[in-house]
Amino acid sequence: EESGADDSTVGTMSQLLERLKTADPIEDVYSFEYPENVERPDPKYKSIKRKYTYGPTFLLQFKDKVRAKPDEEWVQQSISKIVITPAMMKLGKPR
Amino acid sequence: MSVEEVSQKVQEVQINDGATKTTVLSDQSNFEVKHPLNTKWTLWYTKPAIDKSESWSDLLRPVTSFQTVEEFWAIVQNIPEPHGLPLKSDYHVFRNDIRPEWEDEANAKGGKWSYQVRIKSADINELWLRTLLAVIGETIDEDDSQINGVVLNVRKGGYKFALWTKSEDKEPLCNIGARFKQVLKIGDDEKIEFFPHSDANGKHHQPTITL
């Protein structure tokens, strides 16, 4: 089944995290066979000592491919700690 | 080799040929492989103090952690962008469980490259994203991983970016600093400054490197 970018097919954050638990880690991103429409990682960022390096252009391709709706469980565990109240926003903006 | 064995072999080869596993780039809901980061990263938030009774430790909180490219993007798209943050708040993204404080053992012997964005029209959201991608993708760091974390302060005078390092070693830090300037699109006429944490309590906190 095709999963498009429209909201009806976007899962929740908790579902995504569950899925990631069972996904296998890529071994070598520089030799991995991506489909033709994917821009491969630029080998200039290969590092001898660090296993996983990703250039910005490669990373940007994930932006529209990983979308997840915040569900209550995830919000409670994480972003509920980013407290922003209307009173705080009244303090103004940086110059 | 028997006929069965041969056909078994042929089948195995065919399976292996078609064994390229799917990533989230081709299938959002049924991907089989993920893109790990070298280390776990933790996002911290500093809440602006509303009354004076709130101490630093009440205000600074770990929000969430991530260790894959996939998680990073899902989180980034579900949290406020820098432009939506109130004055006196901070975002910090630090390796593993390093606390974004100079007292943390991992930071004690290091320092930070610091830059305050002064240009009014600067798209702060884009600069912050560029910085995060360079840090978690490890394209701004050195082979011996100098970078402990990155900080964004939202202040009246502007947005301040800082890259926290584990050492004060001039050579690797200058390489990182030069790349930091590119990431933040800073021209040759503007400078970034390196401040060692060891001097953070000093009265005359002066940069030890300027680039």
UniProtKB/TrEMBL annotation, chain B:
GO cellular component: cytoplasmic stress granule; eukaryotic translation initiation factor 4F complex; nucleus
Keywords linked to the UniProt accession: Initiation factor, Protein biosynthesis, RNA-binding, Translation regulation
GO biological process, one term: positive regulation of formation of translation preinitiation complex
Molecular functions per Gene Ontology: mRNA cap binding; phosphatidylinositol-3-phosphate binding; RNA 7-methylguanosine cap binding; translation initiation factor activity
Alphabetized Gene3D superfamilies for the sequence: RNA Cap, Translation Initiation Factor Eif4e
A Pfam family it matches: IF4E
Similarity section: Belongs to the eukaryotic initiation factor 4E family.
Protein name: Eukaryotic translation initiation factor 4E
The species this protein was found in: Zygosaccharomyces rouxii
